[in-house]
């Protein structure tokens, strides 16, 4: 009988019931107040007169009116660069102990995002909240005695000018609580490995020695790891190695496009739980089984604002126009795409994180990620966000009984005419022309803007199928394998030329 598991599960259930009655709007107001009070004597706080903002009876509005929007390039150039020049108290008291390196999905040059002790604490607390929420998923007591394999970037962080640098998954894993280390796999030695292929090989070798109950990591890299473990150990599916595997905590990107190929690696169904951990902080997690939406962490170290996702507010470089209106949590509406803006305990202020979201339940502050501001395909008025592209790919998987775990596309000029040119990663046999027709018909029926565009400037759709490994090889060449690296879903024409040349090289 799993005695320890019963004790842990009972404790979690009690703690989760105590946390049921949350006032997310009030929590956000308190977070904003705390952020402003803490940072009022920093250079940023003095420049924007946080003292005066704090005296306002309309705190959120005064805050929004006083401070402009910042994307990474702007805040780094005007403020964070001073940290690298040795200055203290720039946008947050003191100096950060860590910088999260993130090239995200938009480029090869790493961003260096400050990560303070307060942010580490905030991420840890959000993770604990997520553990408490597991009581909602009706997991058996013995689950709470199994290991959890967290697949991320290296925990061997680089020492640079008095601070440490690495991807946020590596920074988080290097700061896991002492009590959790007995559950944590692959362990500190393997987690510190820098070389992705070497790390996965070691995991495959050690896998039979572990009793894994849960997995955590980005779907694309998790799939590759599971495939390696299955292949190396000569089994049919991962449950032959880890029979007690019951939960996968996905993160970084929408799980939908990977669902079919991921499930093919399993011997039985497991619980999938979505999370939203970015380099800038732990933003949201799924807290109940009857939805795949995620609840914003409204009582942590992040204050949220929401800008209606209207193309007229977005500049060519993906930044926001100064007149773009922002809303608080108390003002948002259902089923409206919003650009997510955050202010954090790491000294990011009114920061454009680059994601778009929509609310599925305002009272619970539950959201879905709907895309990226830079990956909004609107070159010829088709207005396709990433979630709509994902839906289309899942439709093709069902219609043609195939798996398409990866894809990318571009609105490309061919002989003066615009086409949506797709590359789809699949190991299954399918005719490109039939996929293109099926895709086109689905998008016309599901999206009125796309249908209108197809009668005007958008000439048609082209599909090219390639091996899914082409996508991981592309990421490996341009960035690094594993960790937070994600595939670009929508490319500009110049980047797409590089992509097509890369595909040709491998043919």
Automatic annotation (TrEMBL):
Residues 389-494 form the GH3 C-terminal domain. Coiled coil: none annotated. It holds the Pfam family GH3_C. GO terms for molecular function: acid-amino acid ligase activity. One of its GO terms (cellular component) is cytoplasm. Residues 297-362 form the GH3 middle domain. PANTHER family: GH3 DOMAIN-CONTAINING PROTEIN. This is GH3 auxin-responsive promoter.
